[in-house]
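Section 3.1 - Work completed
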Amino acid sequence: MKKIAVFMLFGQSNATGHGVPMAEEDIIKEPLKNVLGLNREPNQSFDTEKLKFTGYTSYGMNLAENQDNTYSVANCLAKAWQSDIDSGANLPDLYIIHISIGSQGVYGMWSPTRQRKLIPGKLGDCDISMYPLACHVLSLFKKYMEENELEPDFVGMHWRGGEQEFWQSVPNLKNDDRLKNTYKTIFAGLRESLGAQFPIVLHKLNFEAVLSGIEDGKHLPSMRFINEVFGELCHDLPNVTMFDSTRAPHYNPDDPYTLFRWDLIHYSPQTNQWVAKEILEEYKNG
């Protein structure tokens, strides 16, 4: 059996790296040798019977939205992982599965009750039922690993989502378990599809600065409620933790622009690169 590392990035616009295009020198043009991904063309389908992994590039590797060459955590981790191996680090090959579309949460295209639909394209054009697509891909990945005698060492599934829900003003009610139960359904289905209790990492929502200035902070209670739900999921489910990007050393709490780009919603290239390096270091440290 050959040991491999497996990283999954699912969610919404901050999983996509929306609006943070890579500088020319950072674009991964040549397929990486030790990092592999799923290109959309042969793999973005409910009819796919076998996955086709290829050397990772920073374009074409998100199986949902068509927005390439961004500083998504997936692209940043791929580059950092290969760089460490090239520098002599003893790391296994990394397999990346990336599925995200901006503005689409667990009541939108990630809904576990949504009928199968797959219209590819850019944000605003694509219409993809991401939960059944992710389950389909993970079930195929399970077969792929068995057929190729690969032993997975999970870096984890990182969930960068929640924005759609607070914009819709999810009720800030302690006794409203709809959101938590929806997440539980999604995570249980993904784990069942892959046949593994892989680590799940929920990224805390840190949008106080922008939300406090919109409609007298109307959406702040919903954002805080979602973070509370994330905390409850960490308590209720095995191997679920929370990641807080405000731990970044470049973050200044008096200046939120040190963490985000101009809109205070989408994380900056520097932040996403730091997150990727943190993920890599945590993996190396066991």
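Second construct:
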Amino acid sequence: MTDLPALAPVVDELVDALGRVDALVNVAGTGSSTPFLDVDYPLWRRVLETDLDGPFVLMQAAARHMVGAGRGGRIVNVTSVHEHQPRVGSAPYCAAKAGLGLLSQVAALELGEHGITVNAIAPGEIATPMTGQADEDPHGKHRPGVPLGRPGDAREVAAVIAFLCGPEASYVTGASCAVDGGMLRMGPMAGSHLTSDDWRRG
């Protein structure tokens, strides 16, 4: 995703090989756990290139093919709960995901007339390599700060993406759908950092 000049040609090659593009899902992402004052510019650029610049290039390339074909299309950008709320130590990640969320909204406005919907998915803590939980079942893990009490499964995120890419979501655009077990309702830091269930009792 950081090889930006190579991204659009890949879309063109896929369309040539497959004949069309109906949906694009931008799911690649990276982040860091670095205090703001310690973030150097190369780290900042690496996260922004992966999480914002790359999706922009791919969105534009895919949308041009969709507009040219005249059949509409679907674009889904995977952001994060940190599209909406900050997290200490994640300045580049939060900036990129918030940017991708607003980019999705602008694209939704501009591409709607072509029958192209653009939406964002904002996952919370999901059992993936990025959270150090590759191939782990999240259902047995306890997360006091998440109302549903556990991390999410990547398939739960994929199900919402599949819905947004399908015909049933033809009137959904410009939305950001949180798939977070209720984490956003708890505040930006509490969801993944609370160690007690005391909040449940008021």
